[in-house]
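Problem statement: downstream parser choked on a complex file, so we are re-checking the raw output for the coenzyme A run. The parser issue turned out to be on our end (a line-ending mismatch), but while we're here, posting the original submission so the record is complete.
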Amino acid sequence: MRHWPLLRLQLTTPRLTLRLPTLDDLDELADRALAGVHGPDEMPFAVPWTDAPAEELPRNTIQYHLSVLATWRPDNWQCNFIVVCDGQVVGSQGIGATDLGIAREVHTGSWLGRAYHGKGIGTEMRAAVLHFAFEGLGAESAVSAAFLDNPASRTVSKKLGYRPDGFGVRARRGLRTLDERLRLNRADFVSPVPVEIHGLDACRDQFGV
Ligand SMILES: CC(C)(COP(=O)(O)OP(=O)(O)OC[C@H]1O[C@@H](n2cnc3c(N)ncnc32)[C@H](O)[C@@H]1OP(=O)(O)O)[C@@H](O)C(=O)NCCC(=O)NCCS
């Protein structure tokens, strides 16, 4: 890919590579979605995309990733990295922003195939995009949100230095449900792993900074 250097951007940590996906990567990511992201009684996502029937979920997953790339704008972007561990696509770590050059705040969201939970991968991939945001893009803060019954996501946030930032209310599977908002200031972040950013200079303008 010569004309869109964004597609060559990579973040690396000791175990992981985060990059924008090829079509084959998306095919593999769809396998992870199909194999399950959470228990059937749980819904960690504000947009309940994992409730789609099995015959639709893989294509929906692929189309979503293509759509956020297709609608990328420097003043409003969503960078959904795929996460590769030991040569396998294991999940997705997203980071996005609106008017980053002025607001200097990013938001994140993520998921891993269920087989890969609880091994520290979620912490490592979030640390990678936070380092990218603060050191690479000059962000001053990062926000996240998680339903109160999502201890894994909330623990990852708290381990990385986020502080509580109030609550939101959402309709989830027909019920009024609270989510906790979390905010991390640049000064409070110390990455637990070394992170390298490759290929940012060629595409920095794509992030509105
Ligand atoms: C959220 C997610 C990405 C985290 O990834 P992960 O690799 O499982 O996270 P890690 O292993 O790095 O850390 C999880 C932490 O939560 C803790 N945790 C997990 N389940 C827990 C529970 N039921 N009660 C208390 N703590 C719990 C773990 O002990 C670990 O903390 P520790 O390192 O101090 O022991 C992953 O669990 C996931 O994909 N979940 C489903 C999708 C999702 O919830 N996405 C986020 C939406 S806001």
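For whoever reads this later: Helices lie at 23-35, 57-70, 100-103, 121-136, 151-159.
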